[in-house]
Write a structure and sequence with these properties.
Elements lengths: L2 H16 L15 H9 L1 H23 L14 H14 L3 H10 L1 H4 L7 H6 L4 H15 L8 E10 L6 H10 L20 E9 L5 E7 L10 H11 L5 E4 L6 H9 L3 E4 L13 H12 L1 H8 L3 H13 L9 H26 L4 H5 L3 H5 L1
Parallel strand pairs: 1-4, 4-5
Antiparallel strand pairs: 1-2, 2-3
Length: 374
């Protein structure tokens, strides 16, 4: 098979896949111990609150160990960022407003290990507080520690969180596709949909085995495209998972620059190209290698590619766990509120994995002693 024939063969496969006509074998469904799942569900609230406390306390210790000593500033000291971060995570988990979250302080005072009580205004201001954002970054890292070295393949996908009760991102995206408006003014792909009420757009990278979010970024900037998030999220994931081997994504990332970024970081890309894709290098050997792998073994390539359903399923789970629209009005606070939902997904997911994945018991022991001990 020469280069021309190989190109035609690749375009034929891509056309069949996009038309849902390719005859590939489906993976067998995973077995789930539903009795164990029931136990995890019964213990969920207690486990999540304890894990929030443990993670944020551990994050504070790590940050303080890296921070040089500073002199105390004059005036009344602010409420400890560690306490605010715990309440924000609990608020996101229960999906309640600021005033109801103030009531959670009284209810779960001991469970969260809070040092003092504070008003809903302090909770509100915590959404754009730098020290809280720093703690959330560290919490994301800690939630990925138990699967460090075990998770090898990651999926990337974008989504949108509504800011109004009458919005639905999936419906807006379908309408956009029907109207042929998925391309930007300059011809770029993956333009976010616009509507009367804004969405907070987010792109996340998710491990395909344990379904934990490894990196998350939110924005209210409509001018950005999904591929612009790819490099920073991939670098963040690569830092948290040095053993990362592959990244998978939909056609929005099927471009030579994304393949080059993945190749430079030692990660193998799997992005479904367009029907008109060619084998022209154009400065990207990684692009040609990816298409050659598709031509050599289509079934194996597609088996890897379809692992991208992990990020789609996680986005769906997060939306079901948080049916309410975002409550904040300022852009920065909306982004933090959206990101908290990703962090809470990881926390909840770890609590379930402790019961469903015995392999993680020893890894969980480092951050959640009680969960690991049963």
């Amino acid at each position: 098979m020469d280069r021309v024939q190989r190109g035609e063969f690749i375009r034929k496969i891509v056309s069949q896949v996009r038309a849902h006509e390719y005859p590939y074998e489906k993976r067998p469904p995973e077995k789930v111990s539903w009795s164990t799942y029931d136990i995890a569900q019964c213990n969920e609230i207690a486990d999540v609150l304890e894990l929030i406390r443990t993670l944020v306390d551990s994050a504070e210790e790590k940050i303080e160990s890296r921070r040089p000593p500073s002199k105390p500033s004059p005036g009344r000291p602010p409420v400890a960022a560690v306490d605010v971060a715990k309440v924000l995570l609990a608020q996101s988990y229960f999906d309640v407003s600021n005033r109801v979250a103030e009531g959670l302080i009284c209810l779960f005072w001991r469970n969260l290990g809070l040092r003092e009580r504070f008003s809903y205004k302090t909770i509100e201001r915590g959404y754009d507080r730098h020290a809280v954002d720093e703690l959330l970054d560290e919490v994301f890292t800690l939630t990925n520690d138990p699967v460090r070295g075990l998770e090898k393949v990651f999926s990337i996908d974008g989504s949108g969180t509504p800011t109004h009760v009458r919005q639905n991102y999936a419906e807006e995206r379908d309408r956009q596709r029907r109207e042929g408006k998925t391309e930007g003014r300059s011809g770029g792909s993956a333009a976010f949909p616009r509507s009367r009420h804004d969405f907070v757009y987010s792109v996340s990278m998710v491990g395909t085995r344990f379904k934990l979010v490894s990196a998350w970024e939110s924005t209210v900037d409509h001018s950005r495209r999904e591929p612009s998030f790819f490099e920073p999220l991939l670098r963040e994931t690569r830092e948290r998972h040095p053993g990362m081997e592959m990244v998978v994504g939909d056609g929005a990332y099927a471009a030579r620059p994304c393949c080059n970024v993945a190749s430079d970081l030692g990660v193998e890309p799997r992005f479904l190209p367009k029907r008109s894709a060619t084998l022209k290098r154009k400065g990207s050997a990684a692009w040609v290698d990816m298409l050659f792998a598709l031509a050599k073994d289509p079934d194996r390539w597609l088996s890897d590619y379809y692992r991208r359903e992990a990020s789609e399923s996680v986005n769906s789970v997060i939306k079901r766990e948080n049916p309410s629209p975002l409550r904040k009005r300022l852009g920065a606070r909306r982004c933090t509120e959206d990101r908290l939902r990703g962090a809470c997904h990881n926390i909840r997911r770890l609590c379930y994995l402790r019961y469903l994945e015995p392999l993680l018991s020893n890894q969980c022991r480092r951050i959640v002693p009680r969960l690991a001990g049963g």
